[in-house]
Amino acid sequence: MAEFNGLLDPEDTVMLLIDHQSGLFNTVRDVPIPDLRNYVIALAKTATLLNIPVITTASVPDGPNGPLIPEIDQYAPHAQYVPRTGQINAWDNPPFVEAIEKTGRKTLIIAGTLTSVCMAFPAVSAVQAGYKVYCVVDASGNWSKMATDTTIARVAQAGAIPTDTFAMVAELMRTWNRAEGSRFAQILADHVCPEYKCLIESFQKAQKVVEDGPETNLDKYQ
Amino acid sequence: MAEFNGLLDPEDTVMLLIDHQSGLFNTVRDVPIPDLRNYVIALAKTATLLNIPVITTASVPDGPNGPLIPEIDQYAPHAQYVPRTGQINAWDNPPFVEAIEKTGRKTLIIAGTLTSVCMAFPAVSAVQAGYKVYCVVDASGNWSKMATDTTIARVAQAGAIPTDTFAMVAELMRTWNRAEGSRFAQILADHVCPEYKCLIESFQKAQKVVEDGPETNLDKYQ
Amino acid sequence: MAEFNGLLDPEDTVMLLIDHQSGLFNTVRDVPIPDLRNYVIALAKTATLLNIPVITTASVPDGPNGPLIPEIDQYAPHAQYVPRTGQINAWDNPPFVEAIEKTGRKTLIIAGTLTSVCMAFPAVSAVQAGYKVYCVVDASGNWSKMATDTTIARVAQAGAIPTDTFAMVAELMRTWNRAEGSRFAQILADHVCPEYKCLIESFQKAQKVVEDGPETNLDKYQ
Amino acid sequence: MAEFNGLLDPEDTVMLLIDHQSGLFNTVRDVPIPDLRNYVIALAKTATLLNIPVITTASVPDGPNGPLIPEIDQYAPHAQYVPRTGQINAWDNPPFVEAIEKTGRKTLIIAGTLTSVCMAFPAVSAVQAGYKVYCVVDASGNWSKMATDTTIARVAQAGAIPTDTFAMVAELMRTWNRAEGSRFAQILADHVCPEYKCLIESFQKAQKVVEDGPETNLDKYQ
Amino acid sequence: MAEFNGLLDPEDTVMLLIDHQSGLFNTVRDVPIPDLRNYVIALAKTATLLNIPVITTASVPDGPNGPLIPEIDQYAPHAQYVPRTGQINAWDNPPFVEAIEKTGRKTLIIAGTLTSVCMAFPAVSAVQAGYKVYCVVDASGNWSKMATDTTIARVAQAGAIPTDTFAMVAELMRTWNRAEGSRFAQILADHVCPEYKCLIESFQKAQKVVEDGPETNLDKYQ
Amino acid sequence: MAEFNGLLDPEDTVMLLIDHQSGLFNTVRDVPIPDLRNYVIALAKTATLLNIPVITTASVPDGPNGPLIPEIDQYAPHAQYVPRTGQINAWDNPPFVEAIEKTGRKTLIIAGTLTSVCMAFPAVSAVQAGYKVYCVVDASGNWSKMATDTTIARVAQAGAIPTDTFAMVAELMRTWNRAEGSRFAQILADHVCPEYKCLIESFQKAQKVVEDGPETNLDKYQ
Amino acid sequence: MAEFNGLLDPEDTVMLLIDHQSGLFNTVRDVPIPDLRNYVIALAKTATLLNIPVITTASVPDGPNGPLIPEIDQYAPHAQYVPRTGQINAWDNPPFVEAIEKTGRKTLIIAGTLTSVCMAFPAVSAVQAGYKVYCVVDASGNWSKMATDTTIARVAQAGAIPTDTFAMVAELMRTWNRAEGSRFAQILADHVCPEYKCLIESFQKAQKVVEDGPETNLDKYQ
Amino acid sequence: MAEFNGLLDPEDTVMLLIDHQSGLFNTVRDVPIPDLRNYVIALAKTATLLNIPVITTASVPDGPNGPLIPEIDQYAPHAQYVPRTGQINAWDNPPFVEAIEKTGRKTLIIAGTLTSVCMAFPAVSAVQAGYKVYCVVDASGNWSKMATDTTIARVAQAGAIPTDTFAMVAELMRTWNRAEGSRFAQILADHVCPEYKCLIESFQKAQKVVEDGPETNLDKYQ
């Protein structure tokens, strides 16, 4: 299906969630931290829903960078954790690349904190290694907005595709016409686009008013 | 204690959560909607923790304004809902004022969507009626930032005290030296200041490293 | 009713729309011009709905300041135009003050372009002359945002009440429980808070789906 | 004419207006909602003026996404609506692509809400299918500004041309030297660039002053 | 006239331009530097036009603070320069206060760089000494925007009136119905509100078209 | 010299200043209008200094678009004005292209209001016609910031080089080691980077202090 | 001296630096963290220079709030640390108030992280207790900008004076005409207004060029 | 190693720090000046740590541009200074290019003030001369944000890689698993990402609490 329309093929995809650590999160200045946490959760839940392999890793998690946020394992329990021995670019860590190769898949979704380092370096390396690479910029988190602007230009120049969390979930989902349709909607409403949660609540209330009748008793008019 | 230092007395306080409705939330432009929802939850949980009476009301919830967000009842199950018969200023609705009077308390915490209407009008009326009034500006949500700027000036001019959600929770909490200390911390970390959640996670990890030893195996150096 | 709760009394109110001219509009930098035009329309329509006297004036409209925007007369055909002979502060123009005095009303709603001049000067003068004054800051339009910030502080310091268009309409409307309820809603949706227009459309569609059944034909699931 | 200068040829063009729905509009954070509505109207009116085929579609309009905004049919009554059966990428819906193919035209103007999904996915697919594609970014509306930044980079990388509503109307219009000249001007003034409306009013007033003489009576000088 | 409407009386006014020095200007972050320079020029020209006494002073101009900008003397050649012997608050310099007292006037217009120091300190001191004080916030220039926000609150709290350059010029001018009317307009167009310059040019062109006929030769239509 | 380092060759360059008209300037929202006017002056003066041919044109200057700003002719009196007969893309006007061709030069500097139309369309056309094209984005002025963002991407995608006024002047100037060195500095200080004017004033004062001795008399210390 | 001009008297002043802790700093969103750290250093150094008593305290520094930043003790070694037993408002801690009372001084400079809590609560309490209170808003650091806006209004309403770091240092310094003049300048250049550091460097270089002659060898011109 | 993953090879790299001068710094508007100074220090220290050749130059440092900031020589004492004879593009200065060629290295890291001139011009020239070029956008400093936006597009279009200071340091560092690991961390914490400094302090404190026990004595609970 991906061949048909230029979008990615979930069957060919691996998700790399790199260095989403509590300490590093406190250095993020381009995405509000709670949003960032939610976007990572959205990716994790989507991968779980579609049985997409998830590979995680952390940069010196026993130092000030802090631990991986617990939500990744919580919402993607199948995620494989590959420890590093100090490499900044996860692609420099042979076990990390081997874990990807073992899946036999050639499309990568990459999110990483910091965007211009932990997301960008493996993206550049993976494109060079022949992978089709999607960079989820807003599920990554960077130390400055200007650094993110340069990174969008850099990864696009290198041939990786810049995208955002909502688009990534939608590109994986492809259609509402599937059994998991409402579960995708729930992910988007809960973690990516909270305005949508309001829409659902209002929609259900509007329909309930038809069924149950109005409740506001205006004294004089209606 | 409040007499002593100019801050409010939780024993004398009623919390008014006015018109936090899903439809109205989608008109809010000064506070991100998920933040707004969380700030209201924080107020609701704090009121529950301290047994502060909560009074809610809604403006024509069977129309496009939408239903009250469900989290208020969920986290403040003791909240009393007072229906209105169309009044925009909740203070114009006699049952609403009577509900406040029944508590015998004279300090009001008011949050309402929209800030310049549903929060500001009752605040002005309550000051005139002799109440001490706190306006929680960022738990209210307004249709424009400029409207919020004018509203801060207006309610301060009228004698109501403008404040924010974090300050409100802290002013109610007063001290960490109480049985509920950690529960307040949890409210702030979960709903008001998510950076704090990262700090807790990092703090615990740092201490765990002392106890369990490091986990990063650098090949050559440490 | 106004006495009761500190809000204004529409029966005691005159609306002054000062120098909303096409040329001056092109100098406005604190409010998007189309929004400004709509906010003025909203005030004009509201005044018409409530039979509130409207007095307009213009500053040298036969020069680069340009003509009064045509929408004022269009939506408040009862507006009285008082020409000036060059005075910047409309209050310096005796016929303008006399027109106000003839109404016998003592509460003024003032909007004017530029905010820090055409709105602020008459507001200060009117407070000194014993009027209760509301300044509609976002229906005024100023040459810079910092000028608006100083003006909010200045008029509040002088004793005038700073407010915004939505709050002004709502303060005049007071309740949905009146014959004109839906017409107020239409004013707000069309001219002040366009997000509300979406809510109405979605609300009606949601109810229509209950009545007519769904229209999306998912091939496999629903 | 298009061949001559690199711009598009209106005779070869189809306009795709995808998922401009009231519910989705309330999730838009990169373009003010009233502006977005106006930009879509501008495209619709321009297509009508030039007899450019318009194809619309909606994503589950009987759910919280809400109905198509009514203005599309109102201002482009010749628009063909193609229902979808759940596909997120309209290009995945064979009847949608067939409708385009039936026109025999090979240049597409695409606007869609959300930008990074409903506009970007069909744009990428259409480029792959050999079409020349224009993406009208500000007539699309996205859930976050950062998502729009990544999308501009993505569609440009894919070979689609990013543009804006004013430029799109102007590129279709090509010259004032045509019978419909003033109607294009009216579209731009009413829906895209309201400052222009002020300029027209001021221009006409300035000319009227020459014809009718001045109206401001200064007491002492002129 | 000032008594009548609460605005200042130019006959009772002295203008204090404090520490507008080239070095200090390069520390200004709340107003664009060219705007700041122009606003000071506007004040200087207005004072000259109305024969308002101007008193200037500088803070250690032979050090990195740099010289007074030359435009003050250029456009207000009657300005009296009072050297200081190191005092930060100009009011602490007896010759400076004496120069003011010699004018016998009791209303002060103060602008100074930095706003929160050189404008605010003398403003607070002058209010205490019984003067009516206007603070021209945007003709002052501050080292940070937050510092300006606190300063507006501080001087308003102290009883000084915060205002902006346009409002100041207009409050001094009072009416277009005076011999110098067009010279005030020129000051505003050249130095305060450059959009106005465009309006004048467009206005004159529009009138010239009536007199001379159109110049655009459309081939086919008009 | 240009061949040597990839920068443009002034000897091969023509400057196109398109549609810098007073009316259109009032629609500009991405660059402050006085800055825009100054940037155009800087380009005009630079062209004059280097004897670079300048070609101007205007879009319906006898309508609301208004006249060309007078500063172009004032500072580039050698500019050739080519009237159009309604074409939006100046490249569609054969006399305009012929005027360029007559110079025999193949590098174009283009600035135009609006950026996404009057600058972008001729830029795309000229690249197609084989010219090397520089787009001076901030000497152009656009109706919205998002439109400018898309335009930078569009013209870069088309092969034109996006740049800014300061860089353009510097790229033409190439070296301070030329007779006109100080005149370039004056252009930059007066019209592009006013902070530089402060630097010059401070620099001269600092040197004067060495020559003339200090002037601040501190009573006690130095 | 303070009596004379309404500014504070350093001899009557105590500085309270409350809860400037590394963990809390990572929750600050209204002031860049490095700036905040520098502003606190500036206050500490100034207090040391003037022998102003400094009292510090921390909120649960053995938890996620983290330790006091080390710079306070480093630059104000005379600072007295008063531990708290959990009180959020430092004024609720009797030993803290006693430490202030022991100084016999009645003017307080307060900075605290978070602004709307740790700075605002003691400020309100101290005003009630009869102190003259200065709130240094930008040496405090808050969890959101809107919270800071409400806090400026709140403390001003309560009678405390809002100010900024630069103004505070200048108000304490009062004059350059003192032995410590250059040390104040160094504090401002190093920690508050780094643009000033550039000015000093440029000033010295300009004077050195006079003394040593120029160093740029232009080949052809000078 | 660089060959392996597409990142640069420090062994093949030269760092060019161009025109970081005190006067020019005061014209920078896209990066806060203290941040800019720190980013340059970070690059200098990193080069020193890795023995990467550094070449500096300055543009007319005996004029208003001011001297090179002293920190470059302070932290990269091995830096070679190449004087220019007026050339704006350092690449136009033969001794500058020769200095690069003498190193025999083919990868360049370029930072320069102003970004769109002093960084961009040599970047374009170096790419044309066959070098692999990294542009450190935020260690450069530009006169306007829009100029930076155009420059990112321009250098990417030319084939140079846009990046930021943090990414540059990390790309040079490559791994924590090296003797200098902690020195890199110190550079980042001190000069690039000060939030990290807080994390280190908090991390150490958290571990100290485990070792030494808590210090807060709550009266009643813990």
UniProtKB/TrEMBL annotation, chains A, B, C, D, E, F, G, H:
Residues 13-165 form the Isochorismatase-like domain. It comes from the Bacteria. Signal peptide: none annotated. This is Isochorismatase family protein. It comes from Stieleria maiorica.
